[in-house]
Specification:
Order of helices and strands: HHH
Radius of gyration: 29 Å
Strand content: under 5%
Number of helices: 3
Oligomer: single chain
Length: 110
Amino acid sequence: MPPAPVRPEALLALGATLGTLRDCARSGADEVLDHLPEVGDRELQAGLDDYLDQVADLLREVDASAADVAGRLRVAAARRSRSATAAADDLAGSVPPPRESSTSSIEEAR
């Protein structure tokens, strides 16, 4: 079954919403690394530091993935917009010109 048609405006709105997600993920990664607690135990500290580094890496990956998806949505919106315009142009071009009345063609034949 073919996919349902999607308006280009909806794709652009979704891409803009992903911009907010990117901002939150990027600031979250910075916050995680800015607030590294000191626990006192060397092994526990190393484990906590590794964990928080992984959390920050995950948030950076969310940022990068959201940027990629937002870019793809912009491309898809542009393609949908162009294809809708082309379809409208094709539809306008496929309308046959008005037919001449039968009396004028008879007169031309004489």
